[in-house]
Each structure stands twice: as structure tokens, then as C-alpha cells.
Amino acid sequence: MSVIPAKLTELPMRPPPGKEGRAIKVRCNIFPLRIAAETIAYQYDVVMLPDVPALYKRAWRLAEPLFRDGNKRAYMAFDGKKNAFSTAQIDQTTVKVAVDKDMEEYYPVLGGGGNTSASGSTGSLAAASGSAAAPLYGSGGAPIGSGRGGRGGRGGVRGGGAPVGRPSTASQDPLPSQVSGGKSAIKAVTSRSEEVTITVKQVAKVDFHSLMLFMSKRGPENETALHAATALSTVLRHVPGMTFVTAGANFYSPEDRTHISGGLEIWRGYHQSIRVMMAGHLGVNVDVAATVFRQGGVSLLDLAKNALRVRDISELARIPPAALRGRLNSEFKGANVVTTHRADMKQRFNIGTISRESADSCMFEFKGKKVSVAEYFMSQYNIKINYPFLPLVLKANGKSAFPMEFLTMTPSQRFKKKLNGDQTSDMIRATVQRPSDREKKISTAVTHTLKYQNNDHLKSFGISVDPQPMVVNARILNAPNVVFGNNQSMKGTEGFWKLGKSLAKPSKINSYAFAFFAQVSDKDAREITKQLLHTFRQTGILFASTAECPIRIQNPELSANVRKTLHALATEATKVYNSRCQILFCIAPKGIKIDGGSRVLYEETKRVTLTEMDVLSQCMDYAKVRLERLSPKYSENVALKVNVKMGGATNFVDRLPMMDKPTLICGADVTHAHAGSAAPSVAAVVTSTDNKATKYRTFLSSQPSRVEIIQDMERIMGDAVDAFRLNQKVWPQRVIFFRDGVSSGQFREVRETEIAAIKRAFAKRKLDATQLTFVIVQKRHHIRLFPNDNNQDKSGNCLPGTTIDTTITHPTEYNFIIQSHAGLQGTSRPTLYHVIHDEIKMGSDQMQQLCYNLCFLSERATRSINMVAPAYRAHLAAYYGRMFLEGDFGSDAASALSGTSQEIPVGLRKVMPLMDQHTMYYM
Length: 923
What we know:
Layout: E1 22-28, E2 30-35, E3 41-49, H1 56-68, E4 76-78, E5 83-86, E6 93-100, E7 183-184, E8 193-206, H2 208-215, H3 223-243, E9 245-247, E10 250-260, E11 264-276, E12 282-294, H4 300-308, H5 313-317, H6 321-332, E13 336-339, E14 348-358, E15 363-366, E16 369-372, H7 373-381, E17 391-395, E18 401-402, E19 407-409, H8 421-431, H9 435-449, H10 456-460, E20 463-465, E21 471-476, E22 481-483, E23 489-491, E24 508-509, E25 512-516, H11 522-539, E26 542-543, E27 551-553, H12 559-577, E28 583-588, E29 593-594, E30 599-600, H13 601-613, E31 616-621, H14 622-625, H15 632-645, E32 652-653, E33 663-671, E34 681-688, E35 696-703, H16 713-728, E36 734-740, H17 747-764, E37 771-778, E38 785-787, E39 802-804, E40 815-819, E41 831-838, H18 844-854, H19 869-881, E42 885-886, H20 891-897, E43 907-908, H21 913-918
Parallel strand pairs: 6-7, 24-26, 25-27, 25-28, 28-31, 33-36, 36-37
Antiparallel strand pairs: 1-21, 1-38, 2-12, 2-20, 3-5, 3-8, 4-5, 6-8, 9-10, 10-11, 11-12, 13-14, 13-19, 14-17, 15-16, 17-18, 21-39, 22-23, 22-32, 29-30, 33-34, 34-35, 37-41, 39-40, 40-41, 42-43
């Protein structure tokens, strides 16, 4: 009787590895992890009462030694939420611990300490003298507005904030001074302590055997294997999770931090995750990480000055109240603050909103008469408010109000909103690292910071991590020839090249004009225009007329002025050239806002030209086109964008595998609003219309906020194959689809929704013979490659074309890694490609070469890029599409709809027909 082998995966199986290219070896930031074969582990459900997540870590540090109860091997790894894992079998156990709610918790320096198990903590990690680390404040005890206490000086006042509306009457009963019964770490419980009861109950046994079968290609990646991987991940992250500030798989410390504008600071740390690989063993992926935190322990007033860029408080008073409130809400709504006006009771809360009223103007009833907040603080606490004209800060429930001067930002608080341009630049400058420096820092983390060799939790599970990084086999693929006009070509081996003397497909401009939204003289404006047009012509763009183009200089304070100027210029250009205006060149300071700061000039320009006028626009930064700074290189780069927008092509490549039959190449991405916004997500699909894969049709659609799966795929792909047939006079026989922005956990949903929708579009057109291959393009990973010898570019990164499809890739599924671009600064990030549907059945060499060659067709620069051009174009188009959303999608709208099933109405302005169908306006 024959045994039917288990199906290892629902996704396409990996074909034989590729052979094309020059064989090399590279180092990577993955470290071999092995687990003893005899290891048996158990999962425990963790219940803490009261259920206060802010106290979880502190409570667990106190409780874990009690769970072990003298058994030195019974270490328990806690995930910081609801689960724990141990190799010891423990009966259902309940312990009680007293956690100091006002404890100033110090996160130790990365790399400090000896044995970092942190199990024997006494409940307080005291800050070292002189340390730069920020304290973490506990939450307050009595409710704000309860009116407890009498009067006193500023150093010892009692009571909370002003009780706006109906004051809270709740009170907190003091905890008993002693607790009896069961195991307990409580010795003396003060009124500022919290008694936490922790119960652990065994709920499952962890089966590591299924994980071993999966790694060795003898078993599927089923729920049992995933459960085992989760257990190992929890054990691995327990010690850093208990020691540092965590965010997902990353750990951060305030010790190495950099202040940036807006009251923010960059914290550095490390990423750590488990990878299941072809190598036959697990690996630990370790990388450096950085993120932005709010500056903790600083007065909210000082942070407001910093964020709004004013020198003193009096300047805040000169900002119109509505504008001031709007800007403060934008910066601080949702932030966590702590009160400072009562020494005996620090209240900690999230900012609900910034009030329309100030301490002087906000009135409420107190002891039978109307009083202002300023009068209340003087009467109740003997405190004179220094800045009564500033707006008040309200708690989320809207029942308590606080003057800004009595609030301090709590430390260890991640900033999750969108960074502005200056902050983004600061972030890039502060975090960029050469490959050699990054590799050294990772090595130091493994040996001295994470200390895998000296970790009792890992030892109890039989886990060992090799401190030496993996060295893996790789290949450098052959670069295509970059082809320009007049049969000129250049080898793309180095990942960059000089622009040919003739564009592969030059565009022709018949009618155009220039708008200057900047302080510039008429003479300078004409000279700038002359120099730009000269470079455009030298680059290869054709101009039908030598007549002097219309130029206007306009103050852009109001969107009405901008709109009027753009329409007038288009009309004037049409008259001058006797031809419909095709493109408007707009020059303005970068990031300039109009209408009192409520709109961005760049976005308004795009909305007006593309959705009202059916005209292209090319915006330029005035700082870069000023006569004393205007360079031919900048002008040339602008020319390339203009040429592509108008349907031209900078270059082709001499070969694209799989293009011997009519082939439609697609790219797709979905962009989401920044944190705090309820704006809809925007999906973009770009589809090729020529056999060179340089010209694309663009499809935009809006869908519910933060929905990643493209909802309108059937209609989009139906229109796409129709457009292909219209241009090529034949239906596509193959469709190769590159999908950006999807995580591994969403593969099944993409297959069941997006791929199914594409197949339905084919079926409606009776395209049963059309073959579809669907590839996920992943950039959000932490794999980094480092040269093992002299195979490196000028930046110290691996050479373009470096490809890996063995050892560190998936055990059974079809994925591979390509580092396709030459480094500019910092450490290059390779791209991970994962084939999740494959009807074309391309072999490894064909698929990898196709992906690599498509990276040479970005056309906005003379360089290969880090991902296939169709996915890159879709990414640009999706981001561009957010400018066309209609409606108010601020955080207030999100709050209003939270907890309801109501959808915010989705509106997406339509790009006008000529632009939509015949140009790549987003390039």
C-alpha cells in the first residue's frame, strides 16, 4: 500500500535553483538558531487583574520567580500580553504582587548588565545616576476633578484638574496594607500601589516536531508548525522585551537618541525575528532599527513652542485661536501626558482634544456659582495660572480640563503620526549607515547586547544561537544593455549609466507655459525659463514652436489665485501656439502651504490641472532653479520626468524574457493614510500597453480606510486587457502581475480575492488560454546582504544583480532575493520576490532575469532601481492618488466613527480623460 505524501504548500513549489550569472558568496544578518531535539514546551494563558497593560511588565518581573517556586529550570517566557511558554509543567497558579504605579522605570542601556533574564527583579529598575534615560511615569490614582484635598503652596498642592461639565465622583479605595492567602510578593501595599493578581493556566503543548518537518521539507507550514515558531519567537524576545521599550519585533533604548524638530527624538535599537529557511535549521534575523519617540519629561508648553516654531509663549498668543487649536490638535491629540501641579498625585492620560476655550474663558459651575478654570485653580489649589489665555487640554471623556503649563509629556512614547519634510530629512541623516558600520553594530548586538550565549530562558528551552552570521551562495546576474535612440546602447553592469545622446522615445510638446509661485523678478523668471528649456531640448524633448511661452508670476496665498493663474496660462498658451495646452511648468518653494496653511500648493496644483483642466503639470522646487543654483543635472532629471509623463521613454532594455508572446505586465499597490487619519485607502494598478514595458495605463480606485486587498480588481483588469487589445490588436496570452505592499500573512486573501477577480475578468472575455503569474514584491523585511570579498560597489554594498534563491529562502515555496540597484548612501535593502500563483511556469533563471531587467526601466533617472518598474510605478500612482480624495478625513472624523459600522463616504476625483488614458501623469 503506497503512502500519499502530504501537500507541503498551497502556493507554487520552488523550481530548481537558477544557474545563470557569476557565483559568489555573501554574508547576511541571519544567525543560525538550533533547538534541542528533546525539547518539550507548554503554553500558558496569562490573566492579570486589574487588566491594565501598562502594568504587565512590572507585574511579571515580580511574579515570575514565584511561578518558578524554587525550580531554577522552570523559566517562563511572557509575550507581554496574554501568553507565556515554559518547558516546565505548572499547575494552574495564582500569585499576587504589588506594583508601584508611580514607579519611574528606567530602561537599561542596551548591552548593559550580566545575566539579563530579569527574573529576579524587585519591581523597580532604578535609574543609574547621571543616565540619559528617560523615566516612565505610572498612572495617577484619584480621578481628575474629584476635588479631594485642601489648599497648599505650589510644591504641595492637592486636587486634580478643573471638572468641566459634570465632574467625576469616582474614588479609588486604598488597597489593604497586607494580602493573605496564596503566593504573594506583597509586603506592604501603599495607597499609590496597585495589587495585581496573575493567574497562569496551561492551555496547550507545543509540538516542535512539526516545525522540524517543515524546515526539512517533509511537512507543511501548518498551524502546529506556526504555533511552535510563535513559541520560539516569544522565548527569544522575552529578555529584551522585559528590558527595553518594544514595538513589534523591535526593541529600543533612549540611551542612544537624537533630538529632532517638533519635540521629537530618534531612538535606536534592534530588530529580531525568527526565519524558517531552506538551510534545514532556523535563523535569527538581527538588524539595527530606529523609530521616533516624543521627547519625554518635557513641559507641554515647551514642546508646543518647538512644534509651532515660536520663540516664546507670547508668540503663541498672536496665532489666531482657531489656527492655534488646529495646529496643537494636529501635533498632540492622543499624546500621553502627566500632570505636575499636584506632588502627591500624578494623573496620566491621553489628550482627547485641545479646547476652544482658555483658562480665562472656560466657565463651569462650582459651589453654586460660575467660575473660570483660572479662578478654580486659584480658589482650590492656590495656584495662579501664568498663561490663562492659552487653550485648555481636555481628557478623552471631555469632563476634565487642564492648563497646558501643568502638563508634561510622558517618556517612552512612540510618535506614530506622519513626519514633516524636515523631520524626515533629520531621520534619514541620523540613521544612514555604511554597510560595514551596520554589520559591526549588528555583530555587537548579537554578542554583547542580546547576549544569546548568556540567557537562562534560551538555555531552559535548549536553544542556541551561533554568534557568527551566515555566509550564503549567491549569483550576480548579467545586466541588460540599456538602449537609447538611434540604436545607442550602454552596459548596465554598474547599475548606473550616462544618458544617451537621444532618448529612446522622445515626446513632443506643442503648447506649454510657466507659472512662478515665488518671489522672483520678471527678468529672472524669463532667464530661468530659457535655461530650463535649453536643457530640455538638449536632453531630446521636441518642441513644435520656438515662440516665447507665456509666463506668469503669482503670489499663491489663496487657492483661488492659484486656480485662476493655471486656467489663464492654459488659455494663453492655447492662443500663442494655436494648440491645446499640454503641460504647465510650476515653480514654487518646496512644501509651501496656502489658504492659511490648510492646503498644500503642490497638491492643489495637481488637483486643478489633472481633474479640472486635462493638462499635465511639472512642479519644480524654486530653491533648485534659482539662477545661482540651477544645474544642468537637475534640469536633465526634470526633463526625464516630463518625457515619461507625456508618453515618451528614456530607455529600453535589449531583452525582456517571456516577451516572445503578447504579454501584459502589471504592477499594483495600495497606499494608506497616515496614523490618525480616517481617509480612504487608494489602490493603483498600472498595466503595460507596449511590448517594451515602458508605457502604462493607470487605474486608480478608492476603498475603505486601511483595507489592503484591492476591491475593484475585476473591473480594473477587464479594462486593462481591453486596452491591451486596443493597442496591440491582440489579446494577451500571458499576464505577469507584480503586487507591492502585501505581507506574508495576506497571501491567502490575495489569492482568494485579487487573483480570483483577475480570473473572472478573463473568463468574461473567454480568455481561458491566458496564463497568469502573480508575484508579491516585498521590501518591508530586515534581510541585509554584505560583501564577503571584493564584489562590492563604490558605496560598499553588494553589486547590483546579487541574487539568492537557496539557503535563506523559504523551504518549499517559490521566492528569491535580488539586490538590483547600486548603493548611493547607507546600506542597500534587497527586494524579496514571492510567486504565489504560477500558470506560465517560468524557471528560476527566466523569472529572476525578468525581474532584474525590469529594474532598469524606471526612466526617471539613469539608474536601476530596487524593485521592478511596474510595482514602482504603481507605488507612485497610489501615493499620487491620495491628492484626489474628497472629504474631511482628519482624526476627528475617525474618532466620531470609531466603534460604529458607519463608513466614511469615499470620493476620488476623476483624472480627466486625456491625462488618464494617454499619459503617465504620476511620474
